[in-house]
TrEMBL record, chain B:
Transmembrane segment boundaries: 6-28
Keywords, ordered alphabetically: Membrane, Transmembrane, Transmembrane helix
NCBIfam families registered for this protein in UniProt: MetS_like_NSS
Protein name as catalogued: MetS family NSS transporter small subunit
Species, as recorded: Geotoga petraea
Length: 505, 34
């Protein structure tokens, strides 16, 4: 099967930025920055960007592009015993699409609600009644129809984006990547021109240097960079594999990493300026209104929109702008996750794109219905906490060991420098071999200890054990896929790996 | 806003957007050479 190619270099760069810049940029970064020292957080954040994010991004692009294969096949080319790590990555990606598409379904509904600002002033109660939320994960309840319809729309959109591979993806990202940036600028400018916005920005940017002595701040910065750049899913490996072997890697990685962080920065201004206004109007302090995650997007921000001057029409316009921004930020991430899975199945089982998409999207929709139930939000939260954190961390740690030690950080550096406009120094090798694995192991161990000390969100142990089981299940299924015979029956050797990395196309 | 907050906001913006446009510039220069 001939490998698909990106139409232009910028289609690839935009698709990679689109994948990295997702909902987390809008609702995770601003909150993390605020929580961990405000302006002082930017110091560990930038350090983590340079010593964790950029080197790992370069390594993932290099492996995909060098081996011209998806994550599992690239790993298999390195050594058959590592193929499971690639499958673990893409299976985690698959699981994430099952609930991420449900959040997209919520956003579709909120787009409609924006038209007449139906959430009113009590946005918390509105959100709970929209979800028809049950009392906890033990009460799954029935499927909430509007969410299921939104879910179907999300999957339909993903199908149309991916149906023609890189050519249809290229056309989509040409507008879904710049649009949220433009919308964030508009929301930021509106936010900054509101009375009280400066107090919100003061909380965000005023540096509290004492926080830099706390390990938590550094761990959060490493985590933010790692989770934000779509690393450990196999996405960047798959996207890199659609480039020719002589395509630039270092400069593209820099553009993607800076583009992603710039989006987070804009989002932080848009969010905190309006939170400052909201606190001012309500006569409370900014910390009283600060929120992160789902609560920020569906409760706090809509409430701030309800308080905007200019009447319902203006509020509706800003509601629409906000939710279109979220929708376009999110969709690039969803389809990139699906693409990582698609490329893996296509490489190993030679399954056609159409057949894969129809099968996967049907399964994705059916499993997504579970997260569209009355208790779905609790399960979404539990799955995201375990799969979206621990699976990714383990895959990230495995990648640094496989790439840095087995492929050889020096080999990767030699390859990327041979095809790139800007050259990277020896620091890359130290980062990939020592610094990143140690930091990721630290983040993992610290998080795991915390799990034992305090049950996540106070959920019952059985619910949390289910979350851990899903992580383990994706590992076991990864092993099963590794054992299955590939359709192309090609035997890869380490010798081929080295020629693969060094040979010209 | 305090001076510290201004410095962080403008400094971070300059690093991020400066970096982004710097690397975009290199890429454009190369594609124009071709």
């Amino acid at each position: 099967m001939k490998r698909q190619r990106w139409g232009t270099r910028f289609a690839f760069v935009l698709a990679a930025i689109g994948s990295a810049a997702g909902l987390g940029n809008a609702w995770r970064f601003p909150y993390k920055a605020y929580e961990n020292g405000g302006g002082a957080f930017f110091i560990p954040y930038f350090i983590a960007l340079f010593i964790v994010g950029i080197p790992l991004l370069i390594a993932e692009f290099a492996i995909g592009q060098g081996f011209q294969s998806s994550a599992p096949k690239s790993m298999a080319k390195i050594s058959k015993k590592f193929e499971f790590a690639g499958w673990w990555a893409v299976l985690s990606a698959a699981i994430i699409t099952f609930y991420y598409s449900v959040i997209m379904g919520w956003i579709f509904n909120y787009l409609l609600f924006s038209l007449n600002v139906s959430w009113g002033n009590n946005t918390g109660d509105f959100f709970v009644s929209f979800l028809n939320r049950s009392s906890g994960p033990e009460n799954v309840g029935g499927i909430v129809l509007p969410i299921a319809i939104g879910l179907a729309l999300s999957w339909l959109w993903v199908y149309f984006i991916l149906r023609k591979g890189t050519s249809s993806v290229g056309k989509t990202v040409a507008w879904t990547v710049p649009l949220p940036t433009i919308l964030l600028v508009i929301l930021g400018i509106r936010g900054m021109t509101l009375e009280g916005s400066a107090s919100g920005l003061e909380y965000l940017f005023s540096p509290n240097f004492s926080q830099l002595t706390s390990a938590t701040t550094w761990v959060e910065a490493v985590g933010q960079i790692f989770f934000s750049l779509s690393l450990g899913f196999g996405i960047m490996i798959a996207y890199g594999s659609y480039n020719t072997k002589k395509s630039d890697i270092n400069n593209n990685s820099m553009i993607v990493a800076f583009g992603n962080s710039a989006t987070s920065f804009l989002a932080a201004i848009a969010v905190f300026s309006i939170l400052g206004y909201m606190a001012n109007i309500q006569g409370v302090q900014v910390p009283d209104v600060v929120n992160g995650g789902i609560g920020l997007a569906f409760i706090t921000y809509p409430q701030a929109i309800s308080l905007l001057p200019g009447g319902v029409i203006v509020q509706a316009i800003f509601g629409l702008l906000f939710f279109v921004m979220l929708l376009t930020l999110g969709i690039d991430s969803v389809f990139s996750l699906v693409e990582a899975v698609e490329s893996a199945f296509s490489d190993k089982f030679l399954i056609t794109k159409k057949k894969f998409l129809i099968t996967f999207i049907t399964i994705g929709f059916l499993l997504g219905l579970f997260f569209s139930t009355q208790g779905g939000i609790f399960w979404l939260d539990i799955f995201d906490h375990f799969v979206g954190t621990y699976s990714l961390l383990v895959v990230g740690i495995l990648e640094t060991i496989i790439f840095g030690w087995y492929v050889g950080a020096d080999n990767i550096r030699e390859y990327v420098n041979s095809v790139s406009e800007i050259k990277i120094g020896k620091w890359f090798e130290y980062a990939l071999k020592y610094v990143i694995p140690i930091l990721l192991i630290f983040v993992f161990v610290r998080g795991a200890i915390e799990e034992f000390k305090t049950p996540y969100e106070g959920y019952e142990p059985w619910a949390l054990i289910t979350g851990v089981s899903i992580v383990l299940l994706s590992f076991v299924v990864g092993i099963v896929f590794t054992i299955l015979k590939p359709k192309d029956k090609k035997d890869y050797t380490k010798k081929e790996l080295l020629t693969n990395l060094e040979s010209e196309e | 806003m305090s001076l510290g907050a201004w410095i962080v906001m403008i400094g971070s913006g300059v690093i991020l957007f400066g970096g982004l446009f710097y690397f975009l510039g290199i890429a454009f220069k190369k594609s124009n050479k071709k």
